[in-house]
Specification:
By secondary structure, this protein is α/β, with parallel strands linked by helices. The chain contains 21 helices and 22 strands. The chain has a 6-stranded antiparallel β-sheet, with helices on one face. β1 and β2 form a beta hairpin. α12 crosses α15. The chain is elongated and about 130 Å long.
């Protein structure tokens, strides 16, 4: 897959990043394949699997304990025997390749973490690039057999050194590694699946120093997430990613300057321990000889190398109105504000830029890369603050080495620039699935060109479309009065549309329907269209006898606009009226759309109590006063509602 940035284009930076995620049998995610961009927004209904993606990523990096309740359909209806999360990494630097070893020799690195329900625990495997036939040597269980296999391989592999005698296993593997690392041999390497990659993770895992994931859950334990003293907290992870490296550099500098002193200390400790255990063994053996002739005990001291230790930790307190308290004593709003401020600081003054090291090739090494996963970033936030936080996260995702993945219900976290990074989740039969809307796909569905689609996306996402991304279904209408009448009447007959997850979106006219219809279709959002046929529009506008030419021209234009819409509307069954629809025919209500013969006002004109209620506000039909229309829809006698409106609301 192509590593795409937040605008769907090739990322310009060359820092390690996640480009693809595969999840199998984790909670509702029975089979998920998803491209991950610099900013990835997971949207959709509650329980559709958005948060499960974040927690699956967190498990991949940290390997927390799982149990059978985490398996898809764990009630036994599907006998899944394992959970698997696979991550593909791209944009590898020289330092990344060194840390990944045989797993980082290609353009992409793919690693899988697998948990088995049979009690065999967790294993981590990766796709490696090895020399031809090398896997057969590495997989030999005994050292003598490995020597034999190696020598046979060396006979046919140019440049592989001959190893004589009883060489240890480490010399054999080192020779294989050295051959594979030579640039002249890269073209001969072959892919080998399921190679043990457990050394990449864990306490001493080298790869964890190249990329770190921080998960900020929506749970109410935010104080723990903000406590630097809490192991695994969001703050400690962030500090570890962008601040603690300063401590590592300082320690390395000290070691470089005092290596001789440290070596002398280690030698003195070993000599002292050896002298002590030798003396103790002599005393014991002098006694033991009288009890068991020819018996002797030996003590072998195991003295670890002394190294300076000490991890950086941060304690968090907040001063508010002159009073300083622990973060745990502050409200959720303040706690989230602290987290937001921390993200803001990463944008404005990233610690990675300070004292950046360089790899052996001379390229900047600003690692580790940072992946921030946030569940419901909008919670505990005033709408204005939420909008600001959305902008902060978007800006953070544009920094080299930073990716943001959020699960959200808020339109404040989806902007036009992030459009192609939307992953819309839905759930069917307990299983999650996702839909992605690319500009290319919308062009294909709508027949519009790239520029036209981009223009609609840029204009409508902040104002109209965003609510539709979070809806179960949308109704596309021409104007505000159409929207308020449909919403109000639906509520009056006992089926409020918002209770059914249905959003009514205003398009502004028939020509503006096609691209949004294709957009929501790409995202898997059920879409219903309500459009005017405008059969009488020309007659109303040009009613005088002297205006016949203008009337004919306007009628031809209205006919063409209506025919353009009916040409792309889906095949559907009629509930009222006849299909296929022809310009000037009676209103038709189908399962997927409504075409008024003229417009909504023509239907409302047959409802006397609505007209009277509207006129009591000082407004008349077609004056397009949304507030007056809403008031009239609330006050009119619902029993007199025209049948076409009743059928249309039922269809919606």
């Amino acid at each position: 897959s192509v590593a795409c940035g937040r605008h769907g284009t090739q990322r310009s930076s060359t820092l390690l990043r996640i480009s693809h995620l595969t999840v199998r049998n984790y909670r509702s995610l029975e089979q998920l394949d998803m491209e991950v961009t610099d900013y990835t927004a997971l949207v959709g209904a509650n329980g559709a699997g958005k948060s499960s993606v974040l927690y699956a990523l967190d498990w991949f990096f940290k390997g927390q304990d799982l149990d059978e309740s985490d398996i898809t359909d764990h009630d036994g209806s599907v006998a899944a025997d394992s959970i698997e999360v696979a991550v593909t990494f791209s944009d590898l630097t020289t330092a990344d390749r060194q840390a990944l070893g045989q797993f980082g020799r290609g353009d992409l690195a793919r690693v899988r973490r697998i948990w088995r329900r049979d009690g065999k625990g967790t294993k981590i495997v990766g796709r490696a690039l090895q020399g031809p036939g090398f896997v057969g040597v590495r997989n030999v269980s005994s050292v003598p057999a490995m020597r034999t296999a190696y020598r046979a391989l060396a006979q046919t592999t140019k440049g592989l050194p001959r190893l004589a005698g009883n060489v240890p296993k480490s010399d054999i593997t080192a020779a294989l590694d050295e051959w594979e690392s030579q640039s002249t041999n890269l073209g001969a390497l072959v892919e080998v699946e399921d190679v043990d990659a457990s050394d990449l993770f864990g306490t001493n895992g080298t790869f964890q120093n190249r990329i770190r994931l921080v998960l900020i859950p929506a749970a109410t334990d935010m104080p723990n997430q903000l406590s630097g003293a809490t192991k695994g907290s969001a703050l400690s992870e962030l500090v570890g990613a962008v601040i603690a490296d300063a401590g590592v550099r300082a320690r390395d500098e000290w070691l470089s300057a005092h290596r001789a002193d440290l070596q002398e200390l280690n030698e003195r400790v070993r000599a002292g321990v050896q002298a002590s255990v030798t003396a103790q063994a002599d005393r014991i053996n002098s006694t033991l000889a009288g009890m068991v002739p020819d018996a002797r005990v030996n003590f072998v001291p195991m003295v670890p190398e002394w190294e300076p230790r000490g991890d950086v930790a941060v304690e968090t307190s907040v001063t508010l109105d002159g009073a300083t308290t622990e973060i745990t004593r502050q409200g959720h709003g303040v706690q989230r504000a602290v987290m937001i401020a921390l993200f803001q600081s990463l944008i404005e003054n990233p610690a990675q830029s300070e004292g950046a090291a360089h790899s052996a090739s001379g390229e900047p090494d600003t690692g580790p890369a940072l992946v921030i996963c946030i569940e419901e970033p909008e919670i505990y936030q005033h709408p204005v603050r939420a909008r600001s936080f959305g902008r902060i996260l978007a800006n953070l995702s544009e920094r080299p080495g930073a990716q943001v993945v959020i699960a959200t219900h808020s339109p404040y976290f989806v902007s036009p620039g992030q459009f192609e990074s939307i992953r819309r989740f839905r759930i069917d039969g307990g299983r999650s699935s996702i839909s992605i809307a690319s500009v290319a796909e919308i062009c294909r569905r709508s027949g519009a060109d790239h520029a036209a689609v981009r223009k609609v996306v840029e204009k409508q996402i902040p104002t109209t479309f965003s609510e539709g991304f979070f809806a179960d279904a949308v109704v596309l209408v021409e104007g505000d009065t159409d929207r308020v009448v449909i919403e109000t009447l639906a509520a009056r007959i006992g089926t409020p549309l918002d209770e059914h997850g249905i959003a009514v979106l205003v398009m502004g006219g028939k020509p503006a329907f096609r691209i949004p219809y294709a957009l929501f279709g790409s995202l898997g959002v059920t879409t219903f269209v309500v459009v005017d046929g405008d059969a009488e529009g020309a007659s109303r506008k040009y009613s005088g006898a002297q205006q016949s030419a203008q009337r004919a021209q306007a009628e031809a234009s209205n006919r063409q606009a209506t025919d353009n819409v009916t040409a792309w509307l889906p095949g559907s069954a009629a509930r009222l009226g006849e299909l296929p629809y022809e310009f000037g025919s009676s209103s038709v209500v189908a399962n997927d759309f409504v075409i008024w013969r003229d417009d909504l006002e023509s239907e409302l004109a047959a409802w006397p109590t609505f007209v009277a209620a509207l006129e009591s506000t000082g407004c008349r039909l077609r004056q397009k006063n949304a507030l007056a229309y809403r008031a009239a829809a609330l006050d009119a006698d619902i029993a007199g509602m025209p049948y076409t409106l009743t059928v249309a609301l039922r269809a919606i």
